[in-house]
Amino acid sequence: MKATLLKEAGATDQLEISQISIPVIQADEVLVEVKVIGINPIDIKTRKGKGRYEILKVENPIILGWDISGIVKESKSDLFKVGDEVFGMVNFPGHGKAYAEYVAVPARHLSLKPANITHQEAAGVPLAALTAWQAIVKAGVKKGDRVLIHAAAGGVGHFAVQMAKHLGAYVVGTSSEKNKDFVLSMGADEHIDYTANPFETQVKNIDFVLDTMGGDYIDRSLEIMNSGGTLISIPSALNTGVEEKSKAKGVNGYATFVQSSGEDMKTIAGLLEKGSLKSHISESYTFDQMAAAHHQIESGRTVGKIVVTLP
Fold first, then answer.
1. Which letter does DSSP use for residue 305 in this model?
2. Which of 183, 195, 267, 273 is the 20 to 30 A CA-CA neighbour of 113?
3. Percent of the chain with pLDDT over 90
4. CB 76 within 8 A of CB 104
5. What was the pLDDT predicted at 235?
6. Which runs of E-coded beta strand occur in the chain?
7. Helix, strand, or coil here: 131?
8. What confidence score (pLDDT) does residue 239 get?
């Protein structure tokens, strides 16, 4: 099969398409023929030697990627049968090996793909939607809460806006002005152009903040939060001290790290099936355009998600 290997940490010229053996599945795994791969910022960080690289550098070969949508070709699990269309985040935070035509996947990391969405839409879901869902569930977001989602036009952000609205919250989303209509179309009640004025001067009395930025966004967000509220910060390299800073302000603060979960994927699949959640794919690349897909993520201007589609 074809797979994109990472020769060593560095620029996109370290990504190389090679022919390797189709993986052999173990007990409770399924072999998935990958139709579409979801590309995430963690892929780029890991390629550069950060992210999950310290864990993966002992592997040979290193195959990046965690998000897939495809068809079960072989099964050693009671959860799925040959021919099932499935999607999920593979082995995160371990070695997902998703940049390949076939992937061996623990069945417990997958869900059936809803029939009303495409493989492209499905592949854009797992890591970003799981990150948003696991954070929102941990925070206990409920009807009537005032919620602030930073970078609401991004991968995690556009799912978080929809999920918080589904739970009955009043949602404020930040983005640049050019993405205002997109953020509002996702269901946000209010939009803040973070480039025009500091967001903390434009909103107050927030019960929950999903921080996708880190750094001083944590301190600034805490200034507009209600006592007893919750702030969850995602960027692992930029959220040091979030618990201590939050506690000092009377807020529950957490750093969170997404985990593969078939059960959570089933919940998300249900929302997709009902139309309560939509996956926005801004661009699709071919398998030999993996470098271009990485460059797009690196631009920091991706709206929703991008994917790589296999032949």
1. E
2. 183
3. 96
4. no
5. 81
6. 2-6, 15-19, 29-39, 67-75, 85-89, 102-106, 110-112, 146-149, 170-175, 190-193, 206-211, 225-233, 252-255, 281-286, 305-309
7. helix
8. 76
